[in-house]
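Researcher: Go.
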Amino acid sequence: MTARIIDGKKISADLRGKVTDAVHRLRRDRGIVPGLAVVLVGKNPASEVYVRNKSKAVTESGMHPFDRHLPENVSEAELLTLIAELNADDQVNGILVQLPLPQQINSQKVIAAIDPAKDVDGFHPINAGRLASGLPGLVPCTPLGCVMLAKTVHASLAGLEAVVVGRSNIVGKPVAQLLLAENATVTIAHSKTRDLPAVCGRADLLVAAMGQPEMVRGYWLKPGATVIDVGINRISADGSKSRIVGDVAYAEAKEVAGAITPVPGGVGPMTIACLLLNTLHAACMQKSLPAPAIQSSA
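Model: Structure:
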């Protein structure tokens, strides 16, 4: 068996095109242009690249970027003041503070300061609580992208046995909640799980999000399983040039799985596409307008 490759680049491009069309209609019919503020603190090279890609995607979609770049030594009070200003700015519909933040700043305090209606990362405690309670709200982008990718393979996730490896607030917990909402039967596995390979071997749908390069081996998988690999890990061996790998041993897994996301080119592109989708939804909610029904497609 050779797995179907789930092309995150193609699927995300389709989703971004649909968001762009909806943004143009919103501008034409209502005179509303969604705005996204991405706040970057310091000069982390990986974060700078990521923010630059986000800003490019925002502009290409027809939205307004309101980027803010603060120095590494900015105080927590100064950052909180900026967030309060963005909360009060009617042109800004979404606020994203790029993590990680410098040591002098309490990340949880910053996340909690963002207006939940503008929290397009979906990390605010109110949005996390709404997700856990099955109520509508803004959902974390990467987990949302994972579920969209899985639904390009399965017309319905109802009844599937899903295993999520990883329990972070950013991916593991919210993706489990989203899968429960799709009526999957969900197990969350982690570093203390006994006989992790056997737990993974039960999964019709496996989401790997533990941040350990190539930890999930091919023999762990149920034949024909759908594998969504969230990991992005840079490794090098014997002084060779570094390369990006996921949390799944891809070469092994694709010989066992029924469908699998590559790394790179799988979940990553969906994260930015879902950020645009969240910003569009936030703009509509703030104007008491119905959010456009947008789904990704294979």
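Model: The two ends are 21 Å apart (CA to CA).
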